[in-house]
Design goal:
10 strands; Nucleotidyltransferase, domain 5; five-stranded mixed sheet; globular; alpha/beta; 342 residues
């Protein structure tokens, strides 16, 4: 089974071909970071136009590298949500049109399910069931994962997600866009301990998150009369450590409550080295193990979309015969069903 995956939910254009027996045959990825940097954030209209410009080029390149024609594919998968409406429509329109012309199936995929299942592509994949920490863009969630499509929400952010807090804090520190990676790089040069920042909801007794107050605490520090530019690296380090402390504590609590010993981390923030170190250290103390996707699969990409679609197809899911183009900018992961029920 060969599946072409298209990812266009935000500011990355990703295309990949996944084959059930041989794995990833080819992939291409373009980031729009330079396009949006001048505006300090993603401009939805510009993102959509760039997807339109690049998708045909990347699809041809990916198929050529895989040594395939469209007629060799069994299905075309695309991100149907959540994400920017216009960006999603670009990927969906291209995928549905290609599938109809080739007489093959088109399969809409949930963006977060793609992230969630991406660690299964590793050489040592986790076994079901496991707890998943999703830290992707505007999402911070803890899920119990029993199988593909069998997800139980354990906790989620009540306001800013971890990734949003990183980006907004980077903006407060005038680090530019994309802010998250730049803040992490700055934090690596700082020393933890100068600033006493809060750990929001650390002792709330539940598995929910809140990072808006942490961002505001950083703003208060920078706005105080005692602030000095040379404090930047230390403040970045203390901010990052606060996020790591909360994410780690909640993830370990989810494992203990579920009596499980396998944690899967997915999404862009999952590439953060401090977070990985914190989770790994805490997991050792708990007798648990943490699985991560490869660093290149932490960002949005076509591989995770093709792989998630292949997993559903191999479990018996059959795409709808109706070729109508439908996207869901807001789409709770908990609404997905197991492939045999779809």
């Amino acid at each position: 089974m060969k599946v072409l995956g298209i990812e266009s939910s935000c500011d990355e254009t990703g295309v990949a071909v996944f084959e059930a027996r041989r794995g990833v045959l080819a992939q291409t990825l373009h980031t729009q970071a330079d396009l949006h940097a001048v505006y300090g954030g993603v401009v939805p209209e510009l993102a959509s136009r760039d997807h339109i410009r690049l998708l045909p080029v990347l699809i041809r390149q990916t198929l050529r590298e895989a040594g395939l024609d469209v007629s060799d594919l069994d299905a075309i998968a695309y991100t149907a949500g959540p994400g920017l409406a216009g960006a999603l429509l670009v990927g969906a329109s291209v995928a549905e049109a290609m599938a109809m012309a080739a007489g093959i199936a088109a399969l809409p995929v949930h963006h977060l399910e793609g992230h969630l299942l991406s660690p299964l592509l590793s050489d040592d994949p986790p076994a079901f069931p496991f707890v998943a920490l999703l830290v992707s863009g505007g999402h911070t969630q803890l899920m119990r994962v029993a199988d593909v499509g069998d997800y139980e929400l354990l906790g989620e952010t009540l306001d800013d997600a971890a990734g949003e807090a990183f980006d907004k804090t980077a903006k407060i520190l005038a680090l530019g866009y994309p802010g998250g990676p730049q803040l992490a790089a700055l934090a690596a040069r700082g020393k933890v301990g100068r600033f006493r920042l809060p750990r929001p909801m650390l002792h709330s007794g539940d598995l929910d998150f809140s990072f808006s107050g942490l961002k505001t605490a950083v703003l208060n520090v920078v706005s105080s009369p005692d602030w000095r530019p040379e404090f930047q690296a230390g403040l970045a380090a203390d901010f990052q450590q606060a996020v790591v402390d909360v994410l780690t504590a909640k993830a370990m609590a989810a494992l203990e409550r579920g009596k499980m010993r396998t944690l899967v981390v997915a999404g862009g923030v999952g590439a953060n080295r401090a977070l990985r170190a914190g989770l790994d250290d805490a997991a050792v103390m708990l007798g648990a193990r943490v699985h991560y996707p490869a660093p290149e699969l932490c960002t949005d990409n076509g591989v995770m979309i093709a792989f998630a679609a292949a997993q559903r197809l191999m479990r018996g899911e059959r795409p709808l015969a109706d070729p109508a183009i439908r996207v869901r900018p807001r789409w709770p992961l908990s609404e997905l069903v197991r492939p045999s029920q779809g």
